[in-house]
Amino acid sequence: MSKKTIAQVAPATFKGKRTLVRVDFNVLQHEDLSIADDSRIRAALPTIELLRGAGARVILVSHLGRPKGGPSDKLSLRPVSTRLSQLLATEVTQLGDCVGNAVGSFVSEMKDGEVCLLENVRFHAEEEKNDPEFARQLAANADIYVNDAFGTAHRAHASTAGVTKYLQPALAGLLMDKELKALSGVLDNPARPFATVIGGAKVSTKIGVLENLICLADVLVIGGAMAFSFLKAQGKQTGKSLVEDDRLDLCKGLLAKAAEKGVRIILPQDVVCAPEMRSGLPTSCVSVDAIPEHEMGLDLGPKTVEEIKQALSSCRTILWNGPLGAFETKGFETATYALVDLLVSLSAAGVKTVVGGGDSVAAIEARNISPEKFTHVSTGGGASLEFLEGLELPGVACLEPAESVGSAV
Length: 409
Ligand code: ADP
Ligand code: MG
What we know:
33% helix, Rossmann fold, six-stranded parallel sheet
C-alpha cells in the first residue's frame, strides 16, 4: 500500500510546524570521527529542503552506530550536523539530547525554515525497546512526524514506529517514497521478462528473498558463495567452497519449485578457484564438475558470466542482490564487476535495474560507478532485503496511507 508523502500535502501544512524527521544518518566515520561517506546525509537533503521551503521547523532525529544504551562521545552526531550545515549552507544546531525540557525549549524558539539535529537517539536504551513513554517524549516536542529513514524502517523502534502513536500526521519523506516506489515497482508488476540475480555469502540470510522471488521472476541467477550450496545439493563436489550443509534440502526444494513454476535457473557452470580467500595465490578456472578437493570457488568463470549476459540482455526488469564472487579480494571481482557494467549498459538502454544489499552497493562503489547509472540503488541494506522478502516494514506500516491524499491534516 502506498504511503502519503510530504509532497502530497499542501506546503502550508508545514508552515511554522515543529516537524520531527527520522533520518538515517548512520554514516561511516574515520578514526578521527570525520565522515568517510556522506551519501546518507545527502540522500536526506531533498526532504529537508522541501520542509524548509514550506516553512517547517525541522527537527532531525537519527541513530549512529550501536551505543550501549548510554551517551558516548564517539557516537555523537556532532560531525554530522557540521557536515549537514555545509551541505545546506545554513547553520544546523546540534542539540545535546533527543528528549526532555532543554530540547523542548530550544525547539519552541526555532524559526520557520530552521534545522536542528537531536543527539543520537540510541543513547537511550528505550529507543530500541520501542518504549511507549520514550516515544511519547519524542513526540512531545513536535507537531508533525516524517519518516525518511528507509534503512531503519525494518526496525520497530521508538523513533521509527512507536512515536506515530503520539504524533500525527505521520508522513513518508521523499527518500522513503523513492525507495518504496522502486522496490515495490519490481515486486508488484515488473515489466517482463523479469530477472533476479542473487549472490552473496549465505543461503541462510537470503531464504526469504529466494522464496519470494522464485514465485515472481522469469529468470533467477544464483551466484556468490551461496551457489555452492545449490551445486552441492545437485550432487557436485564443491571442495573447500563455503557451503551450508544444513541448507541443502532447502536448496533442493527451491530448485524443484523453480522447475515447477517454469522459472529459468542459472547456476555457475565454471568457477574461479584458489586454495583460500587471499589475493596473490595461484587461481584456476574450472568446470563446476571439476572443483579441486582442496580449493574453494571464489568467483564465477567466463562461461557463466557469458550465460548471464545473454540471459539478462533480453530482460526488461532486473533486480540484483548479493555479489557474484568474493569481490573485495583482488582476483575474484571479475564476475561482480562484469555484472555491474552490464547493468549500467542495460539501464542506459531503458531496462529497469534495481539493486539492494549493503555489499552489492559496496561493489558498485568499488567499481567507481555512480548509483545514478541504475534505475535505483537502495540505501537500505537490511531493510531492502526484508522488503524483497515481501515483509511489511514496521516503520512503513505506521505511516498514513496515500488514499487520504487531499484530506486535511
Ligand atoms: P549483500 O550485502 O549485498 O546482501 P551479502 O551480505 O549476502 O551481500 O554477501 C556479500 C559477501 O559475499 C561479500 O563479502 C563477498 O565477499 C561474499 N562472497 C561472494 N561470493 C563468495 C564466494 N564465492 N566465496 C566467499 N565469499 C563470497
Ligand atoms: Mg551484506
